[in-house]
Every structure is written in structure tokens, then in C-alpha cells.
Amino acid sequence: MHSPSAERFTTYCGSLYQFTTSWSTFQNPSTYPPFEVIYRHYTPLVHRMIRRLHIHSNLDDFLQVGYLGLWYAYRDYDEEKGPLSSYAFMRVRYEMLTMLRKDSTYQARHAFRAIRYGYTLPLSPSLVPP
């Protein structure tokens, strides 16, 4: 016995990793593919963006932010403005750059405080030489 979500999954996704139906064929939001399909299809985009931005620490946090950006792209997507892939790329990149900015601001503030008050900050594992 198939559940409705399983039927939708097989309708919108021919295999686990290949997206077979174009987004423009969906007429209203209730017929959009479920987010699980979009998640599986765009996972390489999130990983590629981490490599492209040269992120080497806090990988789990940046993965989470990337998937959050993908969710925002899925939620706010308007097919009249262009393809989902372009919008998802921009939204994932925006969310990761925002987190990079917040991290660098946090590090700068705490590094200054550490220098001023004479204590040392622990290095992240990615910065410790082998």
C-alpha cells in the first residue's frame, strides 16, 4: 500500500538522484514536488557552495545554513522570474555569506577582547597544524 507522499515522490522523481519533471510543468503550489525531492536533487549544490567559498571549519553549521537557504528558495520561488536552480544558487550563497560575515564579526570582537584582557582563545581544529 502506497502513501500519497510515496506516490508524489515516484511521480516527480524517476530515480533517487535524477529530477525528471521540470518545475514549469506544475500549475499551482499543491502540485509542486515535495521538499524531500528538491533536497536530494540540490544537495550537491550546497556541498559545491561550501567548497567554492573555501569553508573549512564549522562544516555542519554551514551545511545547515545551506539547506535552510534551499528551503527559503523552495518556499519563495516564483517560476515567472526564472528557473529554480538559479534562485536556489543565489539563496544558498546569500545565506552562507551572511553566516561567514557573522562569524568573522564574532571572531574579530572576541579576538580583540582576548588581546585587551590578556587571555588566549582556543584554536578551532581546522587551524591547528598537523
Outline the structure in words.
This protein has 130 residues and is an all-alpha fold. The protein is elongated, with a radius of gyration of 20 Å. The chain has one domain (4-106). The protein has helices at 4-12, 35-52, 59-76, 84-117. The longest helix is centred in the last third of the chain and has 34 residues, at 84-117. Residues 1-21 and 23-28 have low confidence and may be disordered.
Provide a brief overview of the structure.
The chain has four helices and no strands. By secondary structure, the protein is mostly helical.
The gyration radius over C-alpha positions equals 20 Å
Number of structural units classed as domains: 1
Mean pLDDT: 74
Uncertain regions spanning at least 5 consecutive residues: 1-21, 23-28
Spatial shape: elongated
The number of helical segments is: 4
N- and C-termini, Cα separation:
54 Å
Structural class: mainly alpha
β-strand number: 0
The biggest beta sheet, please? none
User: H/E series, N to C?
Assistant: HHHH
- Proportion of helical residues: 55-70%
Strand percentage, roughly? under 5%
Q: What's the topology here?
A:
Layout: H1 4-12, H2 35-52, H3 59-76, H4 84-117
Helix pairs in contact: 2-3, 2-4, 3-4
Entry keywords:
single chain; elongated; mainly alpha; 130 residues
